[in-house]
Amino acid sequence: MVAGALSSQNNMLKIPVILFVYNRPVHTKKTITALRKNIGASETPLIIYSDAAKTQKDTPNVNLVRKYCKEINGFENVTLIERPYNFGLAKSISEGVTETIAKFGKVIVLEDDLETSPYFLLYMNTALEKYSEDKRVMHVNGYCPPIETGSEKDTFFYRVTQSWGWGTWSDRWKKYNNNSAELLDTLHKKKLLSHMDIDDTFHYSSTLKANARNDISTWAVKWYASCIRNEGLSLYPTQSLVQNIGNDNTGTNAKKTSQFQVQVSTQEIPVMKKDILETDEIKMSMVKYYKSLKPNLFEKVLLRLKFWYKKI
Predict the structure, then answer these.
(1) What's residue 292's pLDDT?
(2) Is residue 4 a part of any domain in this protein?
(3) What is the distance between the alpha carbons of residues 32 and 153, in angstroms, rounded to a whole number?
(4) How many domains does the chain have?
(5) How far apart are CA 48 and CA 17, in angstroms?
(6) What predicted TM-score, i.e. pTM, was given to this entire model?
(7) Domain harbouring 196, CATH code
(8) Of 49, 154, 263, 277, which residue has the fewest beta carbons closer than 10 angstroms?
């Protein structure tokens, strides 16, 4: 086991991990088991936000998750925050990140369906320290989709903020705008909607519009739009350090699919300072990847989001 095995260059590992959980005890245990095996886990504060049940049907599993969370060890400390009523995923994450980042200045964020490489914390901590003064870097991704990275070694920059294992800084998070209509108006005036939609290959802006109409309630697209609005970029590892195990029809916003499966890195991803820009090579790879997704995948996700939101 590599947990706690710190080298002298990695003594900065103190950035807290925020974990958002709900009603999936099996997924939550897998997430914790993998995280506990990370280098630096025993030096890492773990803050868990447990949302309350939406319906009576969800109550038993919510209680099981909370019982399990009270028994978690292997981290510097564990703080469990039990929501007294159902916040919903979007509100729970946006408020939980805001509350925690105000105290610590930097955060690493996970949800209850993400299995991490043993090198995830090392990469995230190193990146959050190394780029702390580079304001254009607004987001650090732990997940990388299955793309061809070509000559890019170790890390690269791209516009999209992936929400499957990520981190940011307090000064960047202050730019998060929860007002979808305002974001749309600004991006339209700045002619950035096509840029946000990966050169019109994947319609993230449709999700933003659905939020503006109150058809759905999500947070990730608003954070992505906020970063685009501020000309921000995200740092990616060339090989993913996170696997989403929730695309099995058990999650709030995910339908069963294998399109996002990746080979998780089994070795350290070095983080070296490099020019903060999107290379043509990466831009072409990302366009190719998003074009390869099933044409109706986005519509299915959007319909599922709308169905879930109207049930609340």
Answers:
(1) 87
(2) no
(3) 29
(4) 1
(5) 8
(6) 0.89
(7) 3.90.550.10
(8) 263
> Could you read off the pLDDT of 29-63 as tens digits, one per residue?
999 999 999 999 999 999 999 999 999 999 999 99
- Angle among Cα 15, 267, 44 to the nearest 5 degrees reads 20
**Is residue 6 included in any domain, yes or no?**
no
Sheet strand arrangement including 17-21: 77-82, 45-50, 17-21, 106-111, 166-169, 137-141, 233-237, 155-158
Strand extents, DSSP E, 71-220: 77-82, 106-111, 114-116, 137-141, 155-158, 166-169
Please say whether the beta carbons of 77 and 45 come within 8 A.
yes
Residue 1 lies in a domain: no
Q: Within a domain: residue 36?
A: yes
Is the pLDDT assigned to residue 4 strictly greater than 50?
Answer: no
Residue predicted with more confidence, 104 or 11 = 104
What residue numbers bound the domain in which 29 lies?
Answer: 13-311
Residue 258 has pLDDT above 80, yes or no: no
